[in-house]
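job 3f2a | input accepted
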Amino acid sequence: MLKQFSKTIAAHRSGILAYFDFDGLSTVPPEGINNKIKTLHKMAYGFRDVEFFKLKIMALYETHYALVG
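job 3f2a | predicted structure (69 res):
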């Protein structure tokens, strides 16, 4: 298992080192936002008003959740 792990690390070496070359710059946050928008789009199938859909996208990050229990 350790040999397989080292082969995987060696195969992705340039990408791993690039992460550190650019101060930890990652595409994870935009991909997460795109995933939330895609999920909202699936849930919004049938919305007639495009402006309402845009407002729902803008409101994705205004939601605050309270810890319960």
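job 3f2a | The longest helix spans residues 28-43.
job 3f2a | closed
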